[in-house]
Input
Amino acid sequence: MITIKDIAAKANVSSSTVSRVLNDDLTLKVTEETRHRILEISKELGYTTVRNRRNVQNLANLNNPRIGIFLAHTLEEEIDGVDDPYFTSIRQGVESECLNRGVFTNKVFRLSENNQKQIVGDLDGLIIIGGISLNAINQLCGHLDNIVFINHSQEEDKYDSVVVDFEKATKNALEHMFSLGYTRIGYIGGKEREQDSGKNLIIEDKRQTTFETMMKSKEIYHEDHVLIGEYTMAQGYELMKKLIKKGNLPQAFFIGSDSMSIGAMRALRESNLRVPEDVAIVSFNDVQMAKFASTPLTTVKVHTEQMGRFGVQLLLDRINGREIPLKVTVPTRLVIRESCGVNSR
Output
């Protein structure tokens, strides 16, 4: 079966670009030549035929619902965070599942855009990716009840959500580090945010708070070994440089994202420190580049694309009549590679 990846390979663009073009995402900045090439290749490869077949199979049940995708982050933040594809992968899962199920009328919105009336007026359901406050939701969506949150949850007795158990995942990662004999463990992470009508509110990051709680319970927590910035490769690099300059580095680090970990490893390498011989690292997300890092990363695998697919499934089920809200917690898995030092202990 022809997939979005097949079209992307032939068009020499990313899968995300293909998906957004096929979904008429007006926020996508792409030349008309590229847009035309993607559409022509999709026809040439027979992608429309597959889509139509799925459409026939599903329209009777789905009644061709109009679904919107709402992104908590701005276009600029998406571009700036290109090295951390966490939310992009969730979005790709949403778009792929919409295409597979014959739902082609989904629209893409961002909090910064003045489109409140449009959201309320012509959608049957909305998938929200990222953190948005109830206040902002009420202003944007009004009477719209068919809403699914992904990677965030709000008013769980009313709305569906798809989340990750960050607390359990962090505990598993730390228990693995303890089992390897590490006691002096540092933490590098970013800020979790909730958008509220133009305001950017910092909210609890369970990775950080769970790390602090576990380390304090064992009386091995050191505040100087915890640094927080943004979830980018550059910030991982800068924060690790700062810790190296301080001296007395921990034996190991739990780092909140793979992109930050790769930046941190660059800083260690520039200081002639080896991973894992001098400093071990356990990371979070398991994006594709994690296994291709200079030292392949031990990392918590988050099934981001599947989170997006679950979001679509929940929303369509809700549109088709389910009244009880559901919260789906997607399991994670610790992927053991070289960076934690498991093979040297």
